[in-house]
Amino acid sequence: MQPKPRANGTSVTEFILLGLVETPELWSVVFILFLLAYMTTVGGNLSILAAVLVEPKLHTPMYFFLGNLSVMDVGCISVTIPSMLGRLLAHKLTVPYGACLTQLFFFHLLAGVDCFLLTAMAYDRFLAICRPLTYSTRMNHTVQRILVASSWACAFSNALTHTVAISTLHFCGPNIIDNFYCDLPQLFQLSCSSTQINELLLFALSFIMAGIPMALIFTSYIHVAAAVLRIRSAEGRKKAFSTCSSHLTVVAMFYGTGMFNYMRLGSIKLADKDKAIGIFNTVINPMLNPLIYSLRNPDVQAALWRVLTGRRPAA
């Protein structure tokens, strides 16, 4: 690395991403495994999106949000994994300073949209189960678009704030990141200047991006559970809970790993755990989402079968 002065005081021009394993003999194994994981994730999520688009039964608000969530999952994994595979293929571990910040911005943008989409899906379930008589007016096409647009606006503001804040820090070396993608906790550890304000900003925005949505989701499902328990028919209760179980599973996985990664300020360096959480955030969660949403949903399964076989839906 050749230090080079920059206008903002940064002397580091590139970072070294050590990746998941430091042994070159294992790079080919990691490459194959993550290439398969990437192809599975992209294929699964695009299949869900295609099913939502072509199946008339799935032209509902819940599946509108699910289709958007599938696009976000493809984006999240595409921000991190292809660049990692490219470095493994080229046997090159370095990433330019600008590319690192760009990856950071888009990862937080797409993950942030995920946060609010999951909240919108919880609100949709609340209206469908607790307010069925006014559901069609409260969750019309305009409201759906406003919720998605608001998700993008909030996530963009969050990602831009973090990117601008991290660009003001001074990096003078070392420049080694013991992970496979650029993220805030690892960059904080490399900064030569104080990161106290950045860490407080991360904590505050994490509360807005995760804490508030989690509170809204929790509140929605308290009302949903109370409404479902009032249903006298056991079959009716089972059907109502089945429409919510997939969403709750995804919420638990997404927010659980995210909170562990970003809200443990002042903790010591935990490289191996950081990598494991990073794999969950960028690979496992997006790869499992299509499976979770299709496993117990016969409408999605039927639509996926028609997409794969090329059959048109019945009129």
TrEMBL record:
G-protein coupled receptors family 1 profile domain boundaries: 44-293
Membrane topology: Multi-pass membrane protein
Keywords, in A-Z order: Cell membrane, G-protein coupled receptor, Membrane, Olfaction, Receptor, Sensory transduction, Transducer, Transmembrane, Transmembrane helix
Pfam families for this protein: 7tm_4
Keyword field contains RNA-binding: no
Gene3D superfamilies: Rhodopsin 7-helix transmembrane proteins
Cross-referenced InterPro entries: GPCR_Rhodpsn, GPCR_Rhodpsn_7TM, Olfact_rcpt
PROSITE patterns registered for this protein in UniProt: G_PROTEIN_RECEP_F1_1 (PS00237), G_PROTEIN_RECEP_F1_2 (PS50262)
Subcellular location: Cell membrane
Segment forming the signal sequence: none
Transmembrane region(s): 26-53, 65-85, 105-123, 200-228, 240-263
PANTHER family: OLFACTORY RECEPTOR (PTHR48001)
Family: Belongs to the G-protein coupled receptor 1 family.
Protein name: Olfactory receptor
Gene source species: Apodemus speciosus
